[in-house]
Design goal:
The complex is a heterodimer.
Chain A: E1 5-7, E2 10-14, E3 19-24, E4 31-37, E5 43-50, E6 55-58, E7 61-66, E8 71-76, E9 85-93, E10 96-99, E11 103-108
Chain B: E1 4-7, E2 10-13, E3 19-25, E4 31-38, E5 42-51, E6 54-57, E7 64-66, E8 76-78, E9 87-94, E10 105-106, E11 110-114
Parallel strand pairs in B: 2-11
Antiparallel strand pairs in B: 1-3, 3-8, 4-5, 4-9, 5-6, 7-8, 9-10, 9-11
The chains are: A mainly beta, B mainly beta.
């Protein structure tokens, strides 16, 4: 069964705009991770946030975690056409990752 | 550079045939995982291994098997391929069970079509 559920399923924005993607989950977790998948390729790890953390930054990425609401958000600032990809949240419980269905992000040049 | 390699990249087979998908990693990672990716379902865990001679069933293990005879390889076998097993298969690895906050490294995937 899917642990993480991303929202929205698809997002289309103009280059330079910010993209916000959300993830909700159902049970307690050790950490939450975000991955990116370019068309026809494997997933690539972007960022990890531990259950005792509330916010984390990495370059143009900002991730937040609200354990009381069992939700996380991924913000990509100043988006670029190269950010076009599918994005997945994954929840880690007992060193096993469970992935959501993904969000398709399209960044128009 | 260390990497994780899947082969073949594309495979077409017939129902009832046995098929083996290869996964080889050069990171010396203890943990290896097989996922399948389908539209509308995202990634689902098939089998995983935390070390040599260790294998465990995941969420969708029926019809699949794995064996771990060394650190580098975790081949996935479809005993008798079915059309429902048409999918994209991803292998992944991570470093250690004892550490927390393990991130996965993925291969490029195998597109399997069962006709």
């Amino acid at each position: 069964s899917q642990q993480g559920e991303e929202d929205p399923q698809a997002l289309s924005i103009q280059e330079g705009e910010n993209a916000t993607m959300n993830c909700s989950y159902k049970t307690s977790i050790n950490n939450l991770q975000w991955y990116r998948q370019n068309s026809g390729r494997g997933l690539v790890h972007l960022i990890l946030i531990r259950s005792n953390e509330r916010e984390k930054h990495s370059g143009r990425l900002r991730v937040t975690l609200d354990t009381s609401k069992k939700s996380s958000s991924l913000l990509i600032t100043a988006s670029r056409a190269a950010d076009t990809a599918s994005y997945f949240c994954a929840t880690d419980k007992r060193n096993k990752l469970t992935f959501g269905k993904g969000i398709t992000l399209s960044v128009r040049p | 550079d260390a990497e994780i390699t899947q082969s073949p990249r594309h495979k077409i087979t017939e129902t009832g045939r046995q098929v083996t998908l290869a996964c080889h990693q050069t990171w010396n990672h203890n943990n290896m995982f097989w996922y399948r990716q389908d539209l509308g379902h995202g990634l689902r865990l098939i089998h995983y291994s935390y070390g040599v001679h260790d294998t465990n069933k995941g969420e969708v293990s029926d019809g699949y098997s794995v064996s771990r005879s060394n650190t580098e390889d975790l081949p996935l076998t479809l005993e008798s391929a079915a059309s429902s097993q048409t999918s994209v298969y991803f292998c992944a690895s991570s470093e250690s069970l004892t550490g927390s906050d393990e991130k996965l490294f993925f291969g490029s995937g195998t597109q399997l079509s069962v006709l």
